[in-house]
Amino acid sequence: MRDKVFKAVSQGDAVGLNGLLHYLQDNKKRLTNETNGKTALLKALLNLKNGKNDTVDVLLDIAEQTGDLESLINASYTDDFYKGQTALHVAIERRSLDHVKLLVQKGADVQAKANGKFFQPKAKHGFYFGELPLSLAVCTNQPDIVSFLMEEGEADVTDQDSHGNTVLHILVVLADNTEENTEMFAVMYDRILILHHKLRRQTEDQLEEIKNNQDLTPLKLAAKLGKIGLFKHMLHREFMDEETRPLSRKFTEWVYGPVHSSLYDISSIDTNEKNSVLEIIIFGSKTPNRCEMLQIEPLRSLLEDKWSTFASKLFLINFLLYLMYLIIFTTVAVYRKDGQPPFPPEVPLDYLRCVGEIISVLGAVKFLYQSVRKWNPSYSLQALLLLISTVMYLSGLREYVGLLVLSLALAWMNVLYYSRGSKQLGMYFVMMQKMILGDLLRFLCVYGVFLFGFSAAIVALIDDPPSTQKNMTNASLDEDPLKAEELSYHDMRFTTLELFKFTIGMGDLQFTDHVQFKEVFYILLICYIVLTYILLLNMLIALMGNTVERISTQSENIWNLQHTIPNVHRVRLIPHMQGAKCEVEEKNWTQWRSDLGVQRKEDPQFHDSHGRLQTKPLLLPFLSTEMSLTQAAISSFRVSLEPPGQDPSQTSPSAVWFSEN
């Protein structure tokens, strides 16, 4: 009977189900008696033809008469792969609004969660949509079904899947930054917010404030995943309708020609909040598009304001302190004592040198601690070399000097870190970094293989018996020890150095005096010179030229990111400076917005009761009644967030106004 039923529903043959009701009643069975959860109803919905399958209604009628209707509708797969998928999920996936309405009216669970392996984010073969029926409808762009589930089905849009993601999180996860995808998901994102706001007007649910298992809101998740298209839409979201206007993050204040001034809600964006959007973008080294994301308003103007107000001054102070440390470190290293360490202080100058050594070591400890928190390999290596050198010094090893001078050289190289304080030097340093970590590193890997391979081949060609070499060496020691060392042609290190000299045009052909087969040696030498001196070096030059051309347009964005990184934590340590006001003015000559439905002023400036010109424009009424801003930004005029007549001490901590096009 089971095979007959499944064959009938797969073909949409309602006649083939005749007698099924009597069979179930006589044998006291139900349509849900399936070991894997796959019912005839699921099979019927999977085989819709042009959105129809007559057996669906028949199955529902039979289940209703057998008292098994709710169990049949909400029956789900029990296998690990499709676990949790119900008939409602299938109807939505088949894009059948009629069947979705029918199932919901018959008692389908709109909060059922499909959490099998097929529906997980990292499934090799599967589709992650957030487990819930509403999320599936949203991700597959079915606005009619979304509206029905929220309005008629009373689906809880705040419900979270097993990863803590709401439907808004899912939209962020599935966004791919293409224009079509971003436009579709942005419209759906706004639809969810508006419907939730209208249906839950009297509740305190803040849909966009819900965090997933990673402690991320949808906005923060978009920042972390680099979903720049949807991220920009979320920041620039503005509703003109009075009822939905509180859902906006951007509020147009005034418009004049191509210029318009807007107020941005930057709650959860600025660094006064732990794990803020700015920190996620700046310190998320694996975040794609992070350079471009920092150019989006209000982030760009907020960072510029922070830099110009106090971050640049902190950066300069830090640079001067590092120079002082470097001078002390250099002085201690250059004027160190010779002999067997450690050296106890004997004269007053020795005490001064000890103070300098202590400062140098404490500085290394500080750099190492900072490098562990925010990975910086150059400073880490500098600190480790100095600390190891200190241990060797205290242990009485004279070899401490080698590590000391290496640390000193790195310390001076790290001065370039502060070049990011200057735009021109910073962009130049960015290009250097890209070439060193990219082109030069690849060149050295290939060149190292050639150098070692040809060195090994030439050492094998040397015809210099150890006894003869020993006699030559002993005879030469009395005359010139260095010359005797030069005759050690079996030394791999010496041979490698000689070949390196050939690479830079300083090779000595006398090196061939002791080879067995000079013809073979010449072939090796010619091949080596052609491959390294002619080919590799010229390829390196060409690659560097291409790198400069390729990143010339990106270097400014990269510099903007790099010169921001060292200041974000310092900014967060100064609570009274949070949300510094920022001025920005932009013009868009290609887009004229003259039909904005917002309240405007004749003049952004106004006069007080004494006739004095003020630079604090009146805020729109809704700002003080319907909008909660922790910080914001505006252009052209520096203002605070208090409405007229309100005590400034009771207003939001700060506000920043931005003007943009």
UniProtKB/TrEMBL annotation:
Arranged from A to Z, the UniProt key words for this protein are: ANK repeat, Calcium, Calcium channel, Calcium transport, Cell membrane, Ion channel, Ion transport, Membrane, Repeat, Transmembrane, Transmembrane helix, Transport
Where in or outside the cell it occurs: the entry states: Cell membrane
Q: Give a single Pfam family match.
A: Ank_2
Region named Disordered? 640-661
What are the ANK repeat spans here? 83-115
Membrane topology field: Multi-pass membrane protein
The record's SUPFAM superfamilies line, in alphabetical order, gives: Ankyrin repeat (SSF48403)
Polar residues bias: start-end ranges: 647-661
Q: Which InterPro entries match?
A: Ankyrin_rpt (IPR002110), Ankyrin_rpt-contain_sf (IPR036770), Ion_trans_dom (IPR005821), TRPV (IPR024862), TrpV1-4 (IPR008347)
Domain of life where this protein originates? Eukaryota
Q: One GO molecular-function annotation for this sequence?
A: calcium channel activity
This chain's protein is named Ion transport domain-containing protein
Question: Which organism does this record belong to?
Answer: Acanthochromis polyacanthus (spiny chromis)
Question: What does the record give as the organism's lineage?
Answer: Eukaryota, Metazoa, Chordata, Craniata, Vertebrata
